[in-house]
Amino acid sequence: MLKGFKNFLMRGDLITIAVGLVIALAFSTLIKAFTDFVINPIVSRFQGGTSVGLGWQLGEEGNKATYLDLGQFISALIYFIIFMAVIYFLIVVPYKHYQARRGVKAFGEPGPVKTCPACLSEDLPAAASKCLHCATEQPPATRTGRSL
C-alpha cells in the first residue's frame, strides 16, 4: 500500500504540477507587490485631490464599506492579466517545448468529435465505433468529424 502511494507521488506529471504551483505562488506574491506598490499609486493619482481612491462613495462619507473602489478593481484586473501572462510565458510555453522535444504533445487542440444519434452525447471521438454512454453502434465518421 505504501509502495503504491510512493509511486503515485513520484510520477513525473505530479512533480511537474507541484513545481509549477510553487513557481506560480512565488510569482503571485511578486506581481501582487507590483500592483499594490506601483499600479495602485498610479491609478489613485488619476483620481486627484485627497480622495480615498478611484471610485465613488455610495453611502456615508468616509465609510469604506460603501465605497465603490474602481481603482482596486482595475488593479486586480491588471494583476490577473500580468499573472496569467507570466504563467503562460514562463511555465506553459517552456513546458510545451520540453514535451515536444520528448515527442509528447502538451496542451494541444482536442481531436475531432461526433454526436451519438441515440443518446445525443457530443463528446465521442470521431473514430469511435460504440458510444461511451449508451453503447450503441456508431456509424463511421465523415471527413468533418460529424456523424452521418
UniProtKB/TrEMBL annotation:
Keyword Transcription attached: no
The record's subcellular locations are:
Membrane
Is Membrane found in the keyword set?
yes
**Protein keywords:** Membrane, Transmembrane, Transmembrane helix
**Would you name any one GO CC term?**
membrane
Annotated protein name in UniProt: MscL family protein
User: A Pfam family for this UniProt protein?
Assistant: MscL
The principal localisation class reads: membrane
One MF term from GO for this chain?
mechanosensitive monoatomic ion channel activity
Q: Where are the transmembrane segments?
A: 73-95
Q: How does it sit in the membrane?
A: Multi-pass membrane protein
Q: From which organism does this entry originate? A: Streptomyces palmae
Taxonomic superkingdom? Bacteria
Q: Which InterPro entries match?
A: MSC/AndL, MscL_channel
